[in-house]
Fold each of these.
Amino acid sequence: MMTLPGPHDIVRHVLPNGLVILVRENPDVASVVVQGMLDTGSLNDGAGQEGLASFTATMLLRGTTTRDFQTIHELLEGSGASLGFGAGLHHTGFSGRSLAEDLPLLVELLADALRRPSFPDEQIERLRGQFVTALKIHEQDTRYVAGRMFRELVYGDAHPYHRPPDGTLESVSGITRDHLVGFHQQCFGPRGMIVVVVGAVSAEAVCRLVEQHFGDWANPAQRLPQGLPLVPPLGGIVRREAALPGKSQADIVLGASGPSRFAEDWQAANMANHILGVFGMYGRIGAHVREKLGLAYYSFSRLDGGWGPGPWRVAAGVNPTNVEEAVQSIVAELRRITQEVVAEDELADSKANFIGRLPLQLESSEGVAGSILSMELYGLGLDYLQRYAPEIEAITADQVREAARRYLDPAAFALAIAGPDRSAAQ
Amino acid sequence: MADSTASVLRHVLDNGLTVLLKEARTAPVISWWVLYRVGSRNEPVGKTGISHWVEHMLFKGTERFPAGTLDKRIGREGGVWNAQTSFDYTAYFETMPAHRIDLALAIEADRMTNALFDPHEVERERTVIISEREGSENSPTFWLHEATRAAAFRVHPYHHQVIGAMDDLRSMTRDDLYQHYRTYYNPNNAIAVAVGDFDAGHMLERIEAYFGGIPRGPEPPPVLRREPPQRRERAVRVEREGNAAYVYAGYRVPAATAPDWFRLALVDSILAGASAPGGGGIGNRTSRLFRALVETELATGVGGGLYPSVDPYLFNVLATVRDGRTPEEVQAALDEEIERLAAGDVSQQELDKARKQAKALFAYGTERVTGQAFWLAFAENFSDHTWYEHYLDHLAAVTLEDVREVAARYLRRSQRTVGWFIPVRDTAHEGGPA
């Protein structure tokens, strides 16, 4: 049997400036994986500057005070390494990989990018053109459009989760170098930063290396995270539909806001979601919409969790003539999961999967690093995996129903549909 | 790193089933693949998409494991399973905690011959597969790839997409599907691979126990239609609703068994960015095409790929035209860059870099059992498993002169198909999608 990562083999080291380093050695591989987070994200985008956090994150590897774009990428690609940054709502994440011998290079470039980005004008315009093209492509992407409308319906104008993290054509066009430099100065710093390293390296050497590059980083101006307003109740079924010319399939997103990873009923809700639309071939939703009715190639449910009340949603892609039937089937499953307790064997199946899938999840260095990052980010404790099986086993069918009922309501949900013009098709 | 250097045990059972086993004892998991030598390459006109549909039907139950029961069995054990259909193969896999692998062996042995193809399930799956095609049709590049492949291959069945033509998906019958299954799903037309935490001798005994009793079948019919030589450039233009233009070029290249293939793999790395079996991607921002197209602000992205295939296929390049620029500009810059390489402008330094990248990517690829097992099965199908195991040795044998020679010989306009996706506003009045 496998040894689960835990306090016995994860080294955790906190620098005086707040940066947390976590390392797990894995001598069986040739490579090393680096993952981590900083305490800023698109929630710090100002009004009218949607996309700023994402723009800033993508600019980090486009020039620093000591290296230009081609030099950075020649160093990375020339050694078969990769490094990337991306902004989420609350955090900006990074991940990289290299052969073990190239870890010093990876950490040096990570520090260079985070601490000394130069935001060259030429690169700003180049990247802006890429964002604009991508946003225009998204405008014609049924899944993207349905997802955006869903977010707007669920969170409303007053909640920051309604804002598009990639920005809009208008906001991205208006972002200036001053905005990027200002965002970096105010939002990037070592407080709340996490670096996880897993691979064929010594923990002691990793801690020394990270300390060498980040130990003297300080940013007294680093902005504190803001609180979130409550998500306004939906009150009923709210629905929006977009017709996109030239499309064959309609994409449906249906749901509401769900629990954060910190919620007490997180695991019960996660279990309800698993039964609803994940287990086996997309759970009950898949069994009904795909297997029984043959309506869709994909139909599943997903619970985001995360730092705040992320969405809990069902998504499906169906022929435009089948939209209403698919929606009815999905709502019938919401009714069932919120009103009836799940059968004991169904619950046992999902519990067995939650526990039994650990060997596969933890096979790779990426899987281990992701798991350690979650432990740190959500304060789960380094012994989380040791406590995990009993915690899952203790979930009851009543708790699953209660969690589903707290967040999902078959009479009050958001429904977004993007696809061919259905008025013409019927 | 014992796992990445362990040798592969190859054994052919009496019924013709080829078995490849590789011990990798670093994590308590095993990946188990059964690959059949059948894909869209084996499909006649009128039955396009049949291999992929048959793949779906193998998830629809046998007498022993009725429809819907296996998803739960696999899930309970903490495993994953799936399948994929490509031009040259259809492959099924389970990756399981090591002590649960018997279930995977039992499933694949059972459905090699006992899939039911229940008529009601066939009809339900028809609409699911049509939905799968409709989902792809929502993407502009699907239409571009369908059109360019059809132009590049007039005779050879690489002509059509794996998903198949919509009318074939509407007209094929349960008996068509079942006949296809019985023709190609035999132990002598299959490759079985396990990689993971097991003892190879013991694993072979268990495979023998599950599969040894399945009788050998008739040899499936060979694919006889070869693509005639191409004499001049072919061009297609797809006009559909959209907001961005795309430029595609596909150059005819040999099958994966040709020595030129590895030389072209290095050409691909230098032009479009590093690649190696199972390694996933690293960036391609220092590749020649990125510099020529993206750094010049003509395109927002560019990628390329050389796909190892049984019969001669294509080296593909696809660029997304930047908003405000034109396909003509992107095509001109693409041509200039490719012709520079074809004229011999390439350095030893670039070649060495491509090899170092491949070495790193290959190492990443050996860290998971699922990817390794796939590549062993995949390579055994189009060549043999040593193609994959000795991949880096093959690259090491390539000289700068080889790279120049293949670039000059294959990267010629007369040997390519170019395709442009031109976004237009609403064409509904010209008739809807197929």
Note: The radius of gyration of chain A is 23 Å.
Amino acid sequence: MKYFDYSNASAAYVWLENNYNMDQYQEYTLEDFVLDVRFQAWVRYQEATDAVFWQQYIDENPAQAKDIQSARKLLDSVYRHYRTEIDEAEIDLEIHGLLDRMRAEKHRLASEVVSGSGVVRELAVVIESDDVRESGFVNGSDLVKEEPLGRPWYAGIWARVAACAVLAIGLGWAGWQYYHFDGGYNGLVSGKELVERVNTSGKQQVIRLMDGTQVVLYPQSRLSFAETFPADQRTVYLSGDAYFQVAKDPKRPFLVYTTDLVTKVLGTSFFVRAKDASDKTLVEVREGKVSVFKQQEFAGRKNAQSKTPNGMVLTPNQKLIFEHASSEMRRTLSDNPEIVPSDSPKSFEFVNTPASSVLTDIEEAYQIDIIFDRDVMKGCPVTASLGGQPMFSKLSILCEVLEARYEVLDGKIVIYSKGCKS
Amino acid sequence: MQSHPENNADDADLWKSFRAGDDEAFGRIARHYYKSLFSYGAKFSRDREFVKDCIQDLFMELWAKRETIGDTAFVKFYLLKSLRRKIYRESQRQQWINEGEDLDFSAQTSGDASIEEHIIEIETNEEMLKTLNQQINLLTRRQQEVIYLRFFESMDNEAIAQVMGISRPAVANLLYRTIQELKDRL
């Protein structure tokens, strides 16, 4: 095996914008291109300036075109192979959690210095806007106040999932008088020792509960929970909209109480829409599994943990709609189902693939049940490039090719087909 | 679309402010490197939450130790190396790794082929891509880690050698061998 030390060459790869000399590539082979930082950036980020540069280079050096194309393919396949999906909101959530932790740590150290072994409340309150103060919730003794450290640096980046005014109050009856709720949420939380977060801002707020669960609380929504969760379960009460990313803890189910429903989870992320005034409640699952119960039925059970759930089970990309008027739970699919993260993602590239395999791929990727006649579909070859399309577009394209149609029924997809023309 | 890596001068300044106790700088460092760290970490464990926890702990430790750590001109390199060590230690503690061997880089072979539009633009032969994808899966975990660090983090062989704890010639050799193996599949 020939031995190459590329590290000498790499010294020349220092990133100097617009300082590249086309001549330096004259002697390059496929391997050199693959290892060249500028070349890598072109394949990876697809930026226009790079594209212009390389196109020009290829035009002027046609002899190297083949090596360049091969190097590009090689790199491209590596970039595709190792791409890790994490969206910006998820990162923001983590960074916010991190800074919370860091500030709590600072706070803890500070109060240890001041008060020796003083008890430290986990729920720090950040008050940033004056309207919170004016609103009259602030009631000295119930609050731990942490002065903001100037203008928070993340105010800009953080806008999408921002916590601008996070408010925690110990719930006393007096506090409740303020809200004048008519039943629902109010009834649920009254008389319980709870902490409440209210989002009076126009932006989403992130709340990190003691068990590690993260909640994105939407504007005009409120969430109540015990300051410390008991050993057997984690219960929160919601009015409004929230997205939950529940920390795994198999021994302590996580329960979300809304006006009429109880949503029970073990570790998952899901969305609940439960406006008190609204005529319906929505629960939507992104990852994992939840079961949803009508509150009356749930309360009727002696022990929420031991019996098998008799509510409605939701799996990823399913959505439950509860109509308050009819008191009926209906299961359907999310408006835009998302691919569930997996170890072996699908390419959705099909060349003469039996339609049954295509459907199975979609089924697995979105973890949605698709009902179809396997024998009929086996005989239909499909050639299509369905990557990057929303799921319902994938189905529409597929159905068009197959002269079939689909229907969403009870959170599943049913394909109607007469088979295909041979 | 991801952004180009920033240059080291900014890194060094940010790092200095952070060491002086500036939490703004700390947050920016964390935000700036999060994606890289997560992507790298996710190659060792398929448990996303575990990787996130490791990264959080890494940053918390970093914050706690800020006054005693040295000036680091290469922040990313320092962080990747620390994360690798952390995941290794945590995994061992949780006994997720067999016989205390080195980390398994291919724990999460994503092989993600969900195709973005810009990739479709490239005139690729799907069959060939599939073969290449399989070929990457056949590489040893060290080979995979070398090309990852080189292609995704644009690290030079010296830095890769330090992160992985092997010699520089070994990195160069691995890299050369790996590229040849992939090239043969083209």
Note: Residues 23-41 of chain B form the longest helix (19 residues).
